[in-house]
Specification:
With about 80 residues, this protein is an alpha+beta fold. It has one domain. Helices cover about 35% and strands about 40% of the residues. It contains 2 helices and 4 strands, in the order E-E-E-E-H-H. It has a 4-stranded antiparallel beta sheet. The longest helix has 19 residues.
């Protein structure tokens, strides 16, 4: 898997990869990560993938999921 670009957005790291005819957007925060796969056929370039990730409330919702993931793990421990 080849890393194409990496951004820091607030407390999260957003990495963009290309593998197996897909763009992969991996978002990491502390010990958690979320991965999204986007087919090459659905977008025209890495720039479009980056724009999609930065559009609207996508990353805000990802951050909220991280909070929920942390709460779920804390309740188990």
């Amino acid at each position: 898997m080849k890393i194409l670009h990496q951004d820091v957005v607030g407390p999260m790291t957003v990495s963009y990869y290309h593998w197996n005819n897909k763009y992969i957007v991996k978002v990491e925060l502390d010990n958690y990560e979320q991965t999204y796969k986007i087919s090459e056929m659905d977008v025209s370039s890495l720039e479009e993938v980056k724009a999609i990730a930065q559009t609207g409330t996508f990353l805000e919702n990802v951050f909220k999921r991280f909070q929920t993931m942390d709460e779920d793990l804390a309740s188990l421990l």
